[in-house]
Structures are given as C-alpha cells and as structure tokens.
Amino acid sequence: MIAFTLLTLALVLVVSPSTANTSHSNSFDAIKGCLQFDEVPGYNDTPVYFPTNSFRNVGRTSNSRYFRIGIVGANDGHIRFGRSAFPYDESVVELVLSGWGNTQSVARRQLRRRNQSFTNVLLKEASTPRLLHRSRPLVFRLEVFDNGRVQLTKDGERRPFFEYSDSQNAIPPDYMAFVKWDVDLIYFYDCPLNDDGAGAVGEESVLLRCSLA
C-alpha cells in the first residue's frame, strides 16, 4: 500500500480595511454620536458639572471608568472632575491640555473656594506640542482608575499620551466640567466608546495554511 502525502499551501493576503479608507476619512467622523458643549465658561466662571451617571456611554472595568471626549480649539482645553456638582471647598482634578501656547499639558489637584480663589497642587507636567487644533477635533479616551491613576489615550492608539497617579488622593469622576482659558473651545462628550476597535488586524498579514493527508 502506497501512502500519498498531499501538501497544500494557501497564501492569503489580508489587507486592513482601515488602511484602504484612511485617505478619505473626515476627522469630524470621530465625534458622531457625541453631545456638544459650546457655551464654555471662562476659567474663573462658574462651571456646569455634568453627572457622569447620566451619560449613555461610560466604559467600566473591574477597577476603572472611562469616557471618550473630543475638543476643538487652538489651545488650553480644561477638564475638571470630582465628587459633586458644586465642589466648593473640596478637591477636584483639573486636566489642562495644550496649555502655554499649545506646548504642554498638566494635571492638578485643585481646591476651589466659593469666592473663586483656588489652590493648585501640580501632579504631572508633560510636553505635548500641537496637541490641539482649531479646526479639527482631538478625540481621546479618559480613563480614571480607583487607585488614583488617570490615563489619556488618543483614538487609534494604545499607549497613553498623558498619564499620572495620585494614589493618596484618588478622586472619582462622578461629575465632569469643561472650561476655557483665552480662546473659544467646543467640547464633545458622552461619545460612543468604539470598544470594538481592539484587536484589529495589522496593515498587511500573510497566512500560510498547510494540511497533510
């Protein structure tokens, strides 16, 4: 009896759909489904703190909550979050994105009083040149961990562009506010999370299939 061995080689070229569509994408497609906030108060005006438990899109892990946010403006995006809608005489987190002429970002723990005086404690400072843009949105994921760690990650990226930890003073994102410094801004919040983007195939891959009979 003669045994025959059949060797079949199949070469399959897989091209990522995202590669084919990149040249035709519109940057504002990223904010589809978000809520828009454009009557943004000044830095020392009274902000509106939105309760995050009313958001439609909040991601949860065993030890964190995360949100997807967009900002359009030349510089100085300011996001604050804390425990209450009127956080006077209590600490909040303040994130400054593209401050100092669109060159750097910082995280602060801020104590603001009823007379609008405040005290800042610097938690992290990082160089982030040209992060914001006046005519296209920066869209990112803001993740707040129970242990005080905070990470900001751009859409389509896996590594945070800004992160810090304040384990001794962990502040939950139960309420969130948006303010401005010296230029008008538009914020997009409660955005769809796009969690289905994880695990996408790379730009090109080759699959080699072998079978023996």
Architecture blueprint of SSEs:
Elements: E1 8-15, H1 17-21, E2 35-37, E3 50-51, E4 59-60, E5 64-72, E6 77-82, E7 90-98, H2 99-102, E8 104-112, E9 118-127, E10 138-145, E11 149-154, E12 162-165, E13 175-179, E14 186-189, E15 204-211
Antiparallel strand pairs: 1-15, 2-14, 3-13, 4-5, 5-10, 5-14, 6-7, 6-13, 7-8, 8-9, 10-11, 11-12
Structure description:
- Residues 43-192 form the Farnesoic acid O-methyl transferase domain.
- This is Methyltransf_FA domain-containing protein.
- Pfam families: Methyltransf_FA (PF12248).
- It is a single chain.
- By secondary structure, this protein is mainly beta.
- The chain has a single domain (36-189), classed as Jelly Rolls.
- 4% of the residues lie in helices and 44% in strands.
- The strands form three sheets. Strands 2, 4, 5, 10, 11, 12 and 14 form a seven-stranded antiparallel beta sheet that branches.
- A hairpin with a 7-residue loop joins strand 6 and strand 7.
- The longest helix has 5 residues, at 17-21.
- The radius of gyration is 22 Å and the shape is globular.
- 29% of the residues are buried.
- Mean pLDDT is 85; it is low at 1-24 and 197-213.
Q: Give the overall shape, derived from the CA principal axes.
A: globular
Please state the structural category: mainly beta
| Computed Rg | 22 Å
Average pLDDT, to the nearest integer? 85
**What is the tally of beta strands?**
15
